Amino acid sequence: GIILLAFGYGLEIFNVVNPVVSQVIFLIAVIYVGRHIIKDGIVHLFEGKVKIELLITIATFGAFLLQSGEEGAMLMILFYLGEYLEHYSLNKSKSSLIELVNTAMVKHGDHEHEKAVSDIIIGDIVVVRPGDKIPVDGIIVEGTTSINQASITGESLAVSKSIGDEVYAST
Length: 171
Known about the structure:
Helices cover 53% and strands 16% of the residues. It is α+β, with helices and mostly antiparallel strands. The two termini are 46 Å apart.
């Protein structure tokens, strides 16, 4: 898409060919890069929703109607790059969170080490620090705390817990 944009822009700047040819190249770049954006915009329109994909599509084709295909192509390519970066960073964050949630600090004697949650067995002492999510169901064996159990009970107020109290994963 970017290569087509640069090629069409170069043709337009140096007046190598008829300006219509560069506009066609810009249109090809828009269709190649923005086909999913255009499709999503139209689908949302038929569902009665006006979303950003529709607005980008309208602005892009409006630029072509004003004979400014390079601006329309640039708009679509920039939106596509923004969507790509958003999905990339979201996927990286999800994988990092999954990795983080799938491990826990386990205490053996005087030392602590990280262990996969799936490898924790009954009798392991899991260390949970303030602000951490509780990785597995268990019983408090040392200390006191307040835990938000809204994900389990629906009650948004923190509940005080001390030695001998049960705690639940993901709270």
